[in-house]
Design brief:
Layout: H1 2-18, E1 32-37, E2 42-47, E3 52-58, E4 60-61, E5 68-73, E6 76-79, E7 89-92, E8 95-100, E9 105-116, E10 121-125, E11 130-133, E12 139-141
């Protein structure tokens, strides 16, 4: 039983991490879904009618949770195919922030993001402040 629970936890964590690496339209969350512009490799959001609500300007984006979404901006699309056969392309050098459904920044793109296994969520850290984004869409400050 313990092995099954451990496997499910690792599988869930991987799925959460992988969700920001969308390569095709995914399911709707808060009435929007992520769509990748294949020419720029940037992510935008469309509504259920197929109308682009937020243009493809984000390097990466999570799904919306309670009308908020973590996005990754100002990165460079880098080709690693000459040096690493397993890794062809990847975004390098960007920062994370949080937007609302209109595209307005709730938190600016100044944060580094890392997985916090103890809290079972991503944490966002900048010199000025830190926070984590709950599964209920709440932004919770991390006290230093």
């Amino acid at each position: 039983m313990k092995n099954i629970v451990s496997f499910l936890f690792v599988f869930f964590c991987f799925q959460c991490f992988a969700q920001s690496e969308v390569s095709s339209p995914d399911y709707f969350s808060c009435g929007l879904r992520r769509v990748v512009d294949e020419t720029t490799m940037k992510v935008g959001f469309e509504d259920k009618k197929g109308k682009m609500v937020l243009p493809a300007q984000y390097c990466k984006a999570d799904r919306f949770v309670k009308k908020k979404c973590a996005v990754y901006m100002n990165a460079e699309w880098t080709d690693f195919s000459a040096t690493d056969g397993a890794l062809e392309h990847r975004w390098i050098g960007g920062k994370w922030g949080v937007i609302d459904k209109t595209g307005k920044y709730v938190k600016p793109c100044i944060y580094e993001r890392s997985w916090n296994a103890e809290m079972n969520c991503f944490q966002y850290v900048a010199p000025t402040d830190s926070f984590y984004f709950t599964s209920k869409g709440k932004i919770v400050p991390i006290k230093k």
